[in-house]
Write a structure and sequence with these properties.
six-stranded mixed β-sheet
Length: 258
């Protein structure tokens, strides 16, 4: 299976330009799964909820429709971070949409970071796994990486690949995602943005890891990059560490009570 990411530097508030930039790149890519950054089409550092509402869309809005058009043309799965407006209320979720030719699945960010708590509603979808071709794909968003329960929940639901849109400003994530891969026996694809926006510096360094935590590719800190690698999904189906040790069967949940 061919998987990858597009690391970009979105221009704040320029939804059509940011989306079109991605669309043109997607048309040239040969891949099965591509991950885009968190809030890839609008930028990140909104001053308040009112400003954010001007750019938020529903999960099947114009941006999702544009991505799905490409998904149908290319027979590709696209995971993209958007600001998802609730259809019935003036609330916005920091969401990821998994777009295929015939479906749009949604994950709403569980662990909000810093000022996000002032403008986004906490996610309420939980961590779910969705099938695409022969793979099972789960989604996390940015700060979810801090919480091992997020990746573990996906892995216990038989996830093969964690698609991880991000707007990282802390430097620890790329190294930590190696551990998330090892402790769960999954592939991870973190797609981050780079650049500066209203006083925030984003670290780039988008990354793909295999199930043993090996870095298959790590992007630069300050350049737009597209990377696709080929992986063997079957490697995520075996959870044996040694002939006598299994990542999940060796868990002693009776000992984990607080």
């Amino acid at each position: 299976m061919k998987v990858g990411f597009i690391q970009t530097n979105p221009e704040f508030g320029r939804v059509k330009e940011n989306t079109n930039n991605i669309i043109e790149k997607l048309k040239e890519i040969d891949a099965d799964l591509i991950v885009l950054p968190e809030l890839f089409n609008i930028g990140y550092n909104f001053k308040d909820k009112e400003e954010l509402l001007n750019y938020a869309e529903t999960a099947n809005g114009e941006t999702a429709i544009a991505l799905q058009r490409v998904a149908r043309e290319k027979d590709i799965c696209i995971v993209a971070g958007i600001a998802e407006k609730d259809e019935n209320k003036d609330i916005v979720y920091n969401s990821a949409i998994m777009v295929t030719k015939d479906k749009i699945n949604v994950y709403r960010k569980t662990h909000l970071f810093d000022n996000e708590k002032k403008i986004f509603e906490p996610g309420n979808t939980g961590f779910n796994v969705f099938g695409y071709k022969n793979a099972k794909i789960g989604m996390m968003i940015c700060f979810d990486w801090v919480f091992p329960e997020a990746a573990r929940t996906l892995a216990l639901k038989n996830c093969d690949i964690i698609a991880h849109p991000a707007n990282l400003v802390l430097s620890y994530c790329p190294e930590t995602m190696k551990t998330r891969a090892i402790e769960n026996g999954v592939f991870t694809i973190t797609c981050n943005r780079f650049g500066k926006e209203k006083g925030l510096d984003f670290i780039g360094m988008s990354q793909i890891t295999d199930t043993k935590g090996n870095i298959l590719y790590r992007a630069s800190e300050d350049k737009e990059e597209i990377k696709v690698v080929e992986i063997n999904i079957e490697e995520a189906r075996s959870k044996s560490m040694t002939k006598n040790n299994h990542l999940f069967e060796d868990r002693r949940t009776e000992m984990y009570e607080l």
